[in-house]
Amino acid sequence: MNQKLLKxxxxxxxxxxxxxxxxxxxxxxxxxxxxxxxxxxxxxxKAWTATHSFGACIQAAWAESMHIYQTWQGTYSxxxxxxxxxxxxxxxxxxxxxxxxSLILSTYTLGYTILRRxxxxxxxxxxxxSTLFVLMTVQFVWSFYDAFCWYNGAMYYTxxxxxxxxxxxxxxxFHLTKSIIAKIIITLVSAALAIFIxxxxxxxxxxxxxxxxxxxxxxxxxxxxxxxFLISILMIYASAFAFSVFAPGNAVRxxxxxxxxNVVAAFFMAIGKSVxxxxxxxxxxEVLMFTILIPFxxxxxxxxxxxxxxPWLYLLISFLLYSAFFFPNSYAMGxxxxxxVQNVYFYVHLWMFCFxxxxxxxxxxxxxxxxxxVSVAIMNLIDAIKQKYDRYxxxxxxxxxxxxxxxxxxxxxxxxxxxxxxxxxxxQKFDQQMRQREIEVKKSKADHLVLNPLTVKMPSDAFHDITxxxxxxxxxxxxxxxxxxxxxxxxxxxxxxxxxxxxxxxxEEVGPGGMTFIEGK
Length: 521
Known about the structure:
Layout: H1 3-26, H2 36-51, H3 54-71, H4 76-83, H5 95-118, H6 123-139, H7 144-148, H8 151-176, H9 180-198, H10 202-222, H11 228-245, H12 248-254, H13 263-281, H14 284-303, H15 311-324, H16 327-333, H17 339-369, H18 373-388, H19 390-393, H20 396-409, H21 414-423, H22 426-443, E1 448-451, H23 473-481, E2 486-489, H24 499-510, E3 515-518
Parallel strand pairs: 1-2, 1-3
Helix pairs in contact: 1-6, 1-20, 1-21, 2-3, 2-23, 3-4, 3-12, 5-6, 5-8, 6-14, 8-9, 8-17, 9-11, 10-11, 10-15, 13-15, 13-16, 13-17, 14-17, 14-20, 15-17, 17-18
C-alpha cells in the first residue's frame, strides 16, 4: 500500500473510531448502578451522604476493602475501587468514558512501545495498525455492556486489563531508555502498578505474571542476560498476589463452590476452554483484519533483528500462556466464567494472534533466506498462491473498507448494539424507572420498602433486579446501601403471589409496622 493510500485509510480509520465510540459515551447518562454496585458501594455512599468529604469516602472504601478481604475475597485494590463506584457521587455517566478511554489509551500505548520504540516503524504505519487493532478490540468485545457500561464488572476486568497494558509498556520502555532518571521513575511506577494489578481479578492476575516470567526466561536464554529489573518487578508482583490469593475471605467464598476440580484437571480444562473460546470468537471480521495486517507484520518481522528461533516452541508457549488466563475460572468454577471474564479472553487472543503471525512469518523468512528446504518450499507455495489468486489480493483495500464499515454497522458490534438500546428506548426506559425508584427511596423515611420491579433488562448476564424475597443478596445490598432494613419488589402480574400477600409475608419476616409501598411511575 503506497503512502498516500495508507494516509487516507488511516485518517478514515480514526474518523470511524471516533464516530463509533460516540454512542457508547452517549448512553452514559442513561446508566445506573445495580447488583454489586450497591453491595460494595454502601459504606462509601453512607460516608458521602453524611459528610460530603472525599477523604472520608477514601477511608470508608479502604475499610470496606479490608472487611471484604477477611470475609469474601482477597482482591484488595479491586474492592477498594468497587467501593468508590461513581453512582455514589451522582456521576455514573462517567463509567463508559473511564472504561472505554482506558482500553483505547492503553492499547495505543503498548502499540506505540512495540511498533515505534522497539520495531521502529513509521508513525503513519503505527497509527494505521493500532487503529485497526483498537477498532477490533472495542467493536467485537465479547460483552460490550460488561466491558463499558457496568462499573463493578467492567472495572474489575476491562480496567485491570488496560492497566496491565500500561505496565507492559513500562517494562519494555525500561530496556529501551538510556536515561537514569527515566529508569528510576519507570521502576517506581512499575512497582506500584504491579502491586495494584496483583490486587485485582485472578484472570489478569495470573496471566500477566506468567507472561512476565516467560519474558525473563527468554532474555536469560536468548540474550544471555539476567534481567534484574524484570525479576524484581515479578517478585514484587508475586508477593502482592500471594497476599491476595491467601486472603481469609477466599476460603469463605470457595466454600460455597461445589465440585471444584483439582489443579491437574483445571490445567487441562483451561486448555480445552481456551480452544473452545477461540472457536467461538474467531469470525469473518478477524479473518479480514488479519488479512490486512499480515503483510505489515511480515515486513516488520523481516526488518527486525530477532532470531525467531524455535518457532514451534514459541507457538506452544504462547498458547499455554493464553490458556493461563482460563485457569482461574477453570479451577474455581470449572467453566469459562461470566461474560465480563470472557472480555479479557477476547482482548488477549487478538494480541496472541498478532504476535504469532509476526513470529512465525519472521521464522519462515529467516529460514527461507538460508535455503532451509521446508521453509523454501512453503515460501514457494505462498508465492504460487499469490500468483494464482492475485486478483483477490488486489482487493485488499476493499477488505479494509469492509472492516471499517462493518465495525459500526454489523449487528454484533459494540456501536450497533449500543445504538439499538438507544433507538428502541430500552436505555431511556431503564433510566426513567431507575430515577423514579431512586428518588422515591431517598424520600421515604420508612425502614421497609416495597417497590415495583423493573420492566426492562440491560444486556448483562449479571443484570438482576431486586426480587420479592427480602433475603436475596441484591435486596439486602440495596437495603444496606440506602440504610433500610428491607427492600423487596412487587411480584409481576402473572405471579402466584398478589401484592397484598407479599406485604403480609414481608410483615411476618421483618416484623410489624414500618412497611411502605412505593408505586413506580
